[in-house]
Specification:
This protein is an all-alpha fold and 85 residues long. The radius of gyration is 25 Å and the shape is flat. It has a domain of 34 residues. It has 2 helices and no strands.
Length: 85
């Protein structure tokens, strides 16, 4: 598993890591045994209220103002350097 994850583990680290991974996999297997048909999917383990504002359209910065201090601008927007290969 360490090889697949490209982890460089010493001989002393391999056994404790194997025990920890085994424990995690045991917990995952226990969860897989549960009947979760009536459990609604959740995004958070605790209820989050008031975290996001409603997504409503509103005026934004004019394109010309945004481009004023840009180093390079193209027809459609900001120009950025190509990634080096």
């Amino acid at each position: 598993m360490a090889r697949l994850a490209r982890l460089a583990l010493s001989d002393e680290e391999i056994e404790p890591m194997a025990r920890e991974l085994s424990a995690v996999l045991d917990h995952v297997a226990k969860i897989g045994e549960l009947s979760l048909d009536d459990v609604a999917p959740t995004l958070h383990v605790v209820e989050v209220t008031g975290a996001l504002r409603p997504d409503e359209p509103r005026p934004s910065l004019p394109r010309e103002v945004a481009f004023e201090q840009a180093p390079e601008v193209g027809d459609e927007g900001f120009l950025v350097p190509s990634p080096q290969a």
